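thread: overnight batch results

M.L. [08:02]
morning all. the overnight job finished for the chain we discussed friday. pasting input first so we're all looking at the same thing
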Amino acid sequence: MIGHQDAEKAFMDAWQVGRLHHAWLLAGPQGMGKGAFAENVARFLVTHGRGGEGGALTLDDRGDDAAARLVDAGNHPEILRLARQPKDKTKDLARNITIEQVRQMIRRLHLSLSLGEWRVILVDAVDDLETDGANALLKTLEEPPAKTLFLLISHSPGRLLPTIRSRCRILRFQPVNDDVMTAWLHELRPMLDMADVRAIVGAAGGVPGKAIALIDSDVAAMEKKLLAIATSGDPENRLREALAREVGGTSNRARLELVIDIVPGLLARLARERPVAEIAPILAQWDRVQRTVRDAIRGSYDGAMVGFEIGNCLADLAPRHGRAAR
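M.L. [08:03]
and the structure it wrote out:
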């Protein structure tokens, strides 16, 4: 985990003085490691005492070894998880966390603790709760059982019931600084070329999970192709047509997603490098790219068409004499 120092300090400070809030909302973009942080918090609580013990402990402290072994095996009885479940015998996940899952969890809360001093409820993600489930959870948050702590992971906290947010202490997970991401990637993959590292950091937007997903993609090569469109204007449409072929079709969905990931960082870089007078056109193309992607996601879209339109947005940033007549 990287970039979690503030969240860890906030939690450990509360634990060390023995004043843990009963519910914590871990909020931030998907891929920030909120789930891993929540798992570390759950492990810490079930392997340590009630808190108020002082000392210089961290979340990585193993605590009681017998309890830690149960956590390692995924069998600790006081860590309860709510997440979307596979549908039938397929590997596809259900659309929501169901009301029945929440009811089963609530029934468990009426039982006495069988081990240790804490019970931890981990909801990943609370955004996935169906409406009835969210209301049932809210009632439990309003009247929380003793010795129970809720960890609610949210990728879109603004869409949650305000009453759920108001019952929680919020830990915000912000995008990681580029320098920190660069150093982390070097440590993770020391053989990565510096050009690849820079491209990955730019495309990841400070999200470690996205950076990991991009490591084995040829980010630098794709960035070079997109930059060529933005600098030349692609007057004969050849670069845009090649891009459309590369990202078109269902088999090339990953390539299209790579382009979508790269473009924001590329536009930000152009905005930093170009004169102030050219920043407004770059921002306009950023809005245009966002609309293109949003409309594509809403409808049944053609990847080649989306790729070509993104290419058009970049081509319009080239010097006027280099643009294609469209």
